[in-house]
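EI: anyone free to look at a 279-residue chain?
SC: sure, send it
EI:
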Amino acid sequence: MNRIDQTFQRLRAKKEKALIPYIMAGDPYLERTEELVVAMEQAGADIIELGVPFSDPIADGPVIQRAGLRALKWKTALKDVLRLAADIRKKSEIPLVLMTYYNPVLKFGVEKLFKEAEACGVDGLIIPDLPPEEGQTVLDRSRRTGLDWILLAAPTTPSGRLRFLSGQTQGFLYYVSLTGITGASLSDYSDVKNRLSAVRRMTDKQVAVGFGVSTPDQAATLAGMADGVIVGSAIVRLIEQHMEDPDLPAVVAEFVKQLKRAVTGGRARRPSKPIAAHS
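SC: here you go
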């Protein structure tokens, strides 16, 4: 049982849901990313998702695209993110999931990536542009190791494919709450609830919901429907706004603390109005 499974097991025993913040590795620079991870863990984060900068991020909205470009200006690459993970692992046992596109994986080498990622203490991979049918090497390697390949499902995913993805994914199933890119708005909670109910009937895996989650109220609402809530663009925007602030880790930690309180203790409630789209 790896760190992701252990975390969900611990949270289930306490009848809690997982808070999974996303930040871009290397934004504003790698040493700061390490500080942010430690601060978020202390604020209550359960799993950390680290973005790997890439020049053509098809699933990311403008906020995360800008973060990736800032990281790329420092020439942050997959090897640097692995080194960052190793440095974090010296201080923390929080599960680390890398979100990367397939091009950096292919260039780095699948076998080499799994070997080095395991050695650095990475627990999972998300590769949004690699369907499992085309990633048999990744899937086989994942099944032979403790490094989970976490698959995504969307509102447009047919039932048959949902069952397939639910059976193939490791760690948890990442449910994209809306059609579109990160940072888009989420307004139809009844539709998300219905679809998540159907997904959870199809799988015995944990289900975490992301995309469009930007406030504590929204996180509380979605926590009532899933096993975990992923928050990305709202945190990345906060980093962008306070990039030069020496207290940046504390600023981000305070927001994460609010999210964790909402996910853990706030009863799920429907926000009074839709959350505005972010860019």
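EI: Strands lie at 18-24, 48-51, 96-99, 124-126, 148-150, 152-153, 173-176, 207-210, 228-231.
SC: 👍
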